[in-house]
Design goal:
This protein is mainly alpha-helical. The chain is 87% helix and 0% strand. The N and C termini lie far apart (59 Å).
């Protein structure tokens, strides 16, 4: 296996791991009783972004090392989606606590 192929494989594993984390956050948000329309809307948008990331991962897996190297990796986007989901969950949980008081 060439260095380039190893690098692509490494990134695919990392992207898969990050996608799993995003899925866990979406599941967590989905289990929360979302009462605010704003939170519902944000979660819906983040689910759409998750699908784009999954599609991108599929393309990476189907491409050669040379094709992947030309495109580069969108790691920042993955981190931003996860960060936005974490913030949303925090807001949902804070809203829930406020309503229970």
């Amino acid at each position: 296996m060439t260095y380039e192929n190893q690098m692509v494989e490494s990134h695919v594993k990392e992207y898969t791991s990050r996608l799993k984390y995003i899925d866990e956050l979406i599941t967590r948000a989905g289990k929360a009783e979302i009462q605010k329309e704003e939170h519902q809307s944000k979660l819906s948008n983040l689910k759409q972004e998750r699908e784009k990331l999954a599609d991108h991962l599929d393309k990476i897996q189907a491409s050669s090392a040379e094709e992947w190297a030309k495109e580069g990796g969108p790691m920042v986007i993955w981190d931003l989606v996860a960060q936005r989901l974490e913030k949303l969950i925090e807001h949902i949980e804070q809203s829930k606590e406020t309503n229970n008081e």
